[in-house]
Amino acid sequence: MDSEAKGSGYGGIESGTRVVAKRRSMSGCDVVLRFLSLALSLAAAVVLGVNKETKMVSVTLVSSLPPISIPATAKWNYLSAFTYLVVANSIACGYAAISLALTLANRDGTKKWITILISILDLIMVALLFSAIGAAGAIGLMGYHGNSHVQWKKVCNVFDKFCSQTAASLGLSAAAAVAFFLLVVLATYNLHKRP
Amino acid sequence: MDSEAKGSGYGGIESGTRVVAKRRSMSGCDVVLRFLSLALSLAAAVVLGVNKETKMVSVTLVSSLPPISIPATAKWNYLSAFTYLVVANSIACGYAAISLALTLANRDGTKKWITILISILDLIMVALLFSAIGAAGAIGLMGYHGNSHVQWKKVCNVFDKFCSQTAASLGLSAAAAVAFFLLVVLATYNLHKRP
Asked: How does it assemble (chains A, B) (predicted)?
């Protein structure tokens, strides 16, 4: 009897340890994803925020005279879609930092309202980042290819460095958006698997 | 004793009825939101999918001759961002119909994997629709205002009906995206409030 009781006791401790270990590993995943989304959105905002390129372009002012070269500048805030992407990434970065602190403070999950609030704000970040990526992506694609129907000419043949840097920022933003997406999936999965 | 047992029995039935009533009202909310998202995304896809406008524009071919009028057409599939919005809304509409059927079939929530799958697919619809709205919104805004830095001229002063119809489709898409957003919020809330 004694040995049986001991066995059951050990079993209880073992099962309890497993539950705590599983909860810790999920909380660890959450922290890693939050840190990743912070770093990626910060990098995306900085890479696009410092994006500026000046090139000499030849312009014909009078048809009887040869064309003259004048400097032309491309800057991130000349297009509202790129401004939106920088602002969205900055908001996501700030929120990731605050939510990381809140998650670490509420690691045992005792304050339910914090968990609900963070879940909803994570979802808002998904919507915000995906809409900003869509906007900047559409304008970036137009810059690469142009469109004959609306007579919008491509500009990336001139400002190649500017376009590459914008594409890099878009890639980083997409990775940050996927990190927030995974945070919402993780929260849903954790809630479903709750005993 | 007998009356006490009876009382407790009634209390149990009452509490059980309240839980069932609450679950039904939440399930009702889910069905209404799914039906709304179906109707809104279908309307958005149709409104943009039939969008076409032909206008006579005057073009100067030879400077010594007066300008001539030629027909110019604006169609939804001339811009890839608008094609993306139509495709995204069609996918969302098809998914809303399938998920509505699955939700009605799994009203008691016994098949957990269906609930998890629907939660994740709802989230994918949020990401898909918001990115499409961002893309089409950015191109639509460029059509309304143009941009002097990249020399892209506004086109909405000519194709006013086309632009208004695109704006209406964007509004409907945004409402559908909000419906999917609320479905994810509702699922999270339900899981948190689960006994």
From this structure: Homodimer and heterodimers.
